[in-house]
Amino acid sequence: MKVRLTSSIAFAWIAGTVPAAAAGCPIERAVYAEAETKIEIRFQPSGEDSPVSHRFVLAAPSGKMTVEGHVMFDPEIERPVAMAMHDCPEGDVTGADLAACTVWSGIIYASDKAGDVDLLPSEGADAPESLVLPGFGPAVSRSVLGKGLSAMPWDVFELKECAK
Q: For the residues 48-62, what does the mean pLDDT come to?
């Protein structure tokens, strides 16, 4: 189901600030940037036989820190749920351990130039124009990734480039 988004994505498109999609760029090579802080989401192939539908790295503009993340489809809510985690312990961990190292967790949406919002496409599909990560800005501002940022990030990321 698609919905019309009438917030910053639609405004950015009308203002001409949303970049054109990289023609034929698959989502697993897409790089997105948040306009205020320049934090990037760099998607990567998830690999065969993985329960994860997407992998990505959040990179701070200083390049001093990266946070690994993944997306898994949650069949209970029928949505792709993303998690960005920093320095999580290995092996047998508790829910409290995971909560302590989670920078952001939530549903991730895709949007096109017209502001239509849909679910994140599967690997191999063309990269959408922008991504919407509800609650991302406040969560990152309170996290280790937010240290050193001069502003709170927004929840919208625009397609920046297609990585080689």
A: 80
